[in-house]
Here is the input.
Amino acid sequence: MSDTRYLQGPLWNNTYVVVMAGGIEGRFWPLGDETMPKQFLDVMGQGKTLLQMTVDRFADRLCPVENIWVVTSENFRQIVINQLPQVPDGNILAEPCRRNTSPGIAYASWVIKSKNPQANVIVTPSDHYIDPLPLFCKAVSVCIEFASETDSIVTMGIRPDYPATEYGYIEADLRYPSPTSPNIFRVDSFKEKPEMALAERYVREHNFFWNSGIFIWNINTIVNAYRVYQPHVAEAFETLMPLLGTDQEHDKVQKLYENLESISIDYAIMEKTEEIYVYPSEFEWSDLGSYSSLKKRLSNDLRGNACVGNGIRLFDTDNCIIHVSGKKQVIVQGMDGFIISEYDDKLLICRLSDEQRIDLFRE
Amino acid sequence: MSDTRYLQGPLWNNTYVVVMAGGIEGRFWPLGDETMPKQFLDVMGQGKTLLQMTVDRFADRLCPVENIWVVTSENFRQIVINQLPQVPDGNILAEPCRRNTSPGIAYASWVIKSKNPQANVIVTPSDHYIDPLPLFCKAVSVCIEFASETDSIVTMGIRPDYPATEYGYIEADLRYPSPTSPNIFRVDSFKEKPEMALAERYVREHNFFWNSGIFIWNINTIVNAYRVYQPHVAEAFETLMPLLGTDQEHDKVQKLYENLESISIDYAIMEKTEEIYVYPSEFEWSDLGSYSSLKKRLSNDLRGNACVGNGIRLFDTDNCIIHVSGKKQVIVQGMDGFIISEYDDKLLICRLSDEQRIDLFRE
Here is the structure.
């Protein structure tokens, strides 16, 4: 149990979380790879995987643990069960094939609506970094209250702390706070990952926020949005409803997914809907998309080295990230600007400035 | 069985080898350390430890395997038994404490004399590199023939291929070949590890040879030398003779060693005796005293990298030595002049030019 519940009364019982855990980001080789993507790894070296840390952010703080649902792919189902013993197995929805985020969110939405037509839902990636937790929980609880009272979609925006070219941006209209909450603003537009010059402009202009991929809505809002913008998807999941919890659910999902378009929730819904808002958050956030971005979020020593592992000793070494399994005894001398990563009989030593080439090295 | 016996008739049966395997050189951390010194490691990556390669050089080539004796310390005895199943356990002489090379050689000499008073003996370190084998066997067989016919000690000298400052040198008097063998010369003096300028002079003068630590002699020659130059040692082992092979041998050795001086065979005998010769050898030799010297003896790729391990892939990498256990999958990018060594949950990354500091890093 956590110290604090950030929501009370009916809002507590009506809050649901959909954790998206089907991605196959493989950036942290050799810690993981396509068969063990980063949500299932303890990349921060805190004894918990990113998926576990994600669930911990919500469970017993923003909702009861029984209200946490996980969307993943068939082949990761057992990993999720192992990593999340506190989440009921029935809350793990396994997609038979990869179809980007929209179909998975629809699947979870129809299932949750069948359980609780008053549900307010937070959709969250499972492989991101967020800190500090109280700031996050407070922000989410504000958004939940807002979403429960309106037919609006709320996106969690992150105030950029540098001109990132690796994130999408949300442009807010700061002249129009929402009628009920002074910290929630109407979204003007969604922006693709920008070039550096554009990213710098976004940061200068103060009304652009990183798109964290965290969305909050009332269950009826999202189901209606699917009905309007993705009618064939809505129809598909309507036909699934009578089979939920029966022996036929699995086969039906299998068949239904074959015909679903692979599309992100951003393209399918976000960019089309009118009633969409952004909450500019103050917590630190990262998608941990690379060793460099991980290094930024780990504590660095005075020479700019970040270490995960208990037995690491550095000499004449600067600006490195060293990531090794628990008790591995490591001595590093004379290095500057390198990734040193070791896991499960695999070792990577590579310049941080060349980390985009890691996948090429593996071929 | 090997293809070739380099000795025939009585010389074959009378040839004995004493392998000195009690040293605690720890230079190849993390492959080994003081508890598993380099003679017990597969530093060349050939599937055999240096001790095993040493024994293979002699067994069935220069003598029957039953004539091979190993001097080691009590705490390494089981390692030797495990690594040399072909050598009779009784041929492994365990010293109760470290006393440098002289007492161990005396111990083996008295034991061998008790088995065969006609023995000709080769004393050899267990942790050196020698190649090619036929040249080595030929050289040793010439020395054995010489030693069997004279009361001389023969040292195996190595023609230096660079001005090494890490080896001792033997100064030969090339005007005096031995009466019976044109390739064996009288020794003028033994020289300590020289400064660079002196080493360069030695190399220029053509009559200086590296002291390989390989000695060949008739058993009576060495026993008599001990009687003359180390009379208390001779006396000690005389008293051991009646107890050889009995339950009391172990206790007696224990007691006897307590009172023996720690001294090398070089100081105790070599530098004092008159009848001493050197055979200038043509084979490649190294004491493998460091990663640098190991790298010299491994095959290097076009960019000067030497790899031990089957799963190593290099990119933009030069002048490195990479030494990892068998199937470890390793990717190295952007490195120049480094040691990368991994074994048994320990990893070392260190500039080759700083390898003298490895022991300091471990403290």
Q: What stands out?
A: The interface with chain B takes residues 30, 313, 315-316, 324, 327-335, 338, 340, 342, 345-351, 354, 357-358, 361-362 of chain A (CB under 8 Å). The radius of gyration of chain A is 21 Å. Residues 133-149 of chain A form the longest helix (17 residues). Chain A has a mean pLDDT of 94.
